[in-house]
User: Fold this.
Amino acid sequence: MTAQCAQESIYNLLPRLEEKPVKPPRPSVKREVEKNKARWKTMGPAKVAVPSPKNFLQKHSKEPKLPARKKEQDSKKLPALSVPRRTDHPVMGIQSKKNFINTNAVAAITGLPKKPQPIYVDRRQGDKYLLETSGLVPKYIKKKDYGVTPKYVTQRNEEMKRAQKEYEAGILEHLKKRAMKQLSDEERRSLLQGLKKNWEEVYREFQGLSVEIDTIPKKIYKEKLESQMKQLEHDIEVIEKHKVIYIANE
Assistant:
């Protein structure tokens, strides 16, 4: 009876939470925990020696310092000062008997007057500028080499003449190889006179044609004379234009 009463309790009506069994930690986890514990053993005030109050932080103590000076540099003498030292004393008691007023007056009377600098003005009420530095003064005509042909120009002209001679010599050699003959001035003049004479004869025949050309033979003859005149005019123009003429040897 008592056992049943013990079992029947009001606390037994409340729902009970299931208690899960806690697994024991593995040995490797235990080792890691023990190993990591040692890192936090020094938490809190550090066990460091307290600095002495005599070694306090001084002004400019952390600034970079220059290296110590070598003995060789110390042995060199310092350069002489252009300014007098503080301990030097001026020489006293020296007086000059020179009359500066009279000397200045004599220098002003006997001296040459100062020449004014030449200037130019760009307009009536414009600014003034120095004339020498403006480029308006023809200073170049006073040079020693004024009017003289420069050396590079003469050298270039000589090179051009030499090249022209070499070119003409090369043409002559080429014409000799091809058996070409150059007309002389007399032959050229006589040839030109002969062509002009032929043109006058053809022109005279052309002037002698009838005014009315009504037959085919007359038209053909007129066209023939016109073509001859054009050819002669072309030959005369070519010979007059070119002074040097080469012809092939027969």
The first helix runs from residue 2 to 7.
